[in-house]
Amino acid sequence: MSRRPPRGEYIETDTGNKVARKATLVGTQNIMLGGKTVIQPEVMIRGDLIRSIQSSSSSSSSATPNNTAVAIGRYCFLSRASCLRPPGRLYKGAFTYMPLRIGDHVFVGPSSVIQAASIGNHVHIGARVVVGEFAIIKDYVRVLDETVIPPNMVIPSFSIVAGQPARVIGEVPEGGHEAFELRELYKTVGNNPPPAAA
Amino acid sequence: MSSKRHSILPAVSAGPKPPVRFSSSITIADSALLTGTNLITISTESVIHPRAKLDSLAGCITIGRRCVVHERTTLGAIGTSGKVTEQAVTLGDYVTVEVAASIEAGNTIIGEGTTVGVGARIGAGAFIGKHCTLTPHTEIRAGEVVPDFTVVYSNGMRRMDKRGVADLKNKGQARQIDVLRRMIPSNPAKFT
To answer: Major location, coarse class (chain A) (predicted)?
Structure first.
């Protein structure tokens, strides 16, 4: 007879997302996960802070098409206790939140707080990093541990960023692009991780 | 994910339920954590995000008008001194306490209009002046005094904020609170 599998730590969706049971996702209708994304326990994603100004009057429609608060790409990895929060600002006289868009293969280190406007592809963010509101991080960026990125900062592609406040301290070397791939990391996480290669 | 559920919030065990005095116009999220034995007062139009933790074991907590307390914050954490005073934490009006900040108990006073940045740590008994800005991850040791209009930034450096925007910041905060009140489902009855 088949036994029910024990309740694992992660919930796996059909698109391959692995969401921990102990993660706190507020407003899940407004959170888009790209697929094959790992969300570890104690992660907090604020999907309830949606854009409050709609460009066209939408009093009749109940489900506005573009109500995304947080959009995450494929193969992303959100480590323990990190927090993703849409940035908010005074726009045209009223306060509104803007969507937070994260690209593919983004690694967010433990205890980081991300309030950026957008993060590109293949970005590695270290532990305890604070990304200020409306910062823009381009592709292939490595953010070292405990960096504080001030609000509205733009970080160009291929840079290495550290410090409080963050400064570009170097560039990702030519052969360093492979290190940003997160497919291997995705496979190691989950309820039944494959045994490590001998 | 099931389409019927609106959020996935694992339950957190709470301590004793504290006596509270809420104004009628506050917004307090359902999953805010209020524990302790002493009085918690939250004044007009303040906003408490989900998962904020207000701990009044070491004394009363008073939050001023139009304050915003973000998630994962801890107000009233018992620091290393462990002393119990009558008034643990006092927040003035228009204070913003950002994500993961922690304010220790022990007569800590935060002045009006101050912004406590992400992950900042304020020691017991500190006195923060009005309209200060504490950038993310700053640490204020116990008993320190930060004068009005100071900006504390990387590694304890300080400078004065000469922009003169205190009034505009307050107006901006009022607008932000207007929007937050509509976005966060408030449930003060759960705590009274």
So the answer is: cytoplasm
